[in-house]
């Protein structure tokens, strides 16, 4: 987990790209890096970590978010995700639900496959997410 100060969206995407080199993906060879910016401006990175017992693995987005939470951060503002070959790599369903716990309107940054960036909100990718209000 790397922690950095405030920066641009491009820098957040670059942090995810740099983290990707540390992914542990010996089975799928699909290395992913993520970087989460918090409301205080701190940035936490994560990578996917696979396991021979496939369900025991964890995605980069949840690793980065969990690092932020472990550091006492609760407001997750932006999440950049970088996969292989610069192609878009949106969070999986489990990661979308996990991230929604902390900010349904979080900005997601993805590479577009042409050297640019795609911006989405988490609620665009996970409309009507299950949340704490459903438990009451």
Could you give a quick summary of the protein structure above?
The chain is of the alpha+beta class and 136 residues long. It has helices at residues 9-20, 60-70, 93-100, 122-125, and strands spanning 3-4, 33-38, 43-47, 76-82, 107-111, 117-121.
General description of the model:
This protein has 136 residues and is of the alpha+beta class. The protein has a single domain, classed as Cytidine Deaminase, domain 2. The chain has 4 helices and 6 strands, in the order βαββαβαββα. The chain has a 6-stranded mixed β-sheet with strand order 1-3-2-4-5-6. The model has no long low-confidence stretch (mean pLDDT 93).
Question: What would you call the shape?
Answer: globular
In the CATH hierarchy, what is the class? Alpha Beta
Beta fraction: 15-25%
- The succession of helices and strands, N to C, reads EHEEHEHEEH
Work out the helicity level: 25-40%
Compute the number of structural domains: 1
Sheet with most strands: strand arrangement: 1-3-2-4-5-6
CATH superfamily: Cytidine Deaminase, domain 2
Main beta sheet, described?
A: 6 strands, mixed
- Tally the helices: 4
Evaluate the radius of gyration.
14 Å
Average predicted confidence as pLDDT: 93
CATH architecture: 3-Layer(aba) Sandwich
Counting DSSP E segments of at least 2 residues, the number of strands comes to: 6
Helix/strand structural class: alpha+beta
Distance between the termini: 35 Å
CATH topology: Cytidine Deaminase, domain 2
Contiguous runs where pLDDT drops below 50 for at least 5 residues: none
């Amino acid at each position: 987990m790397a922690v950095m100060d405030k920066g641009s969206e491009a820098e957040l995407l670059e942090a995810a790209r740099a983290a990707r080199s540390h992914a542990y993906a010996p089975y799928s060879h699909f290395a992913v890096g993520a970087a989460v910016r918090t409301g205080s401006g701190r940035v936490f990175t994560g990578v996917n970590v696979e396991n021979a017992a496939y369900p025991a693995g964890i995605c980069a987005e949840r690793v980065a978010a969990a690092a932020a939470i472990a550091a006492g951060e609760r407001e997750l503002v932006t999440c950049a995700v970088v996969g292989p070959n610069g192609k878009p790599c949106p969070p999986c369903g489990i990661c979308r639900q996990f991230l929604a716990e902390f900010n349904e309107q979080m900005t997601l940054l993805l590479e577009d496959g042409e050297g640019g960036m795609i911006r989405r909100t988490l609620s665009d990718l996970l409309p009507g997410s299950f949340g704490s209000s459903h438990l009451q």
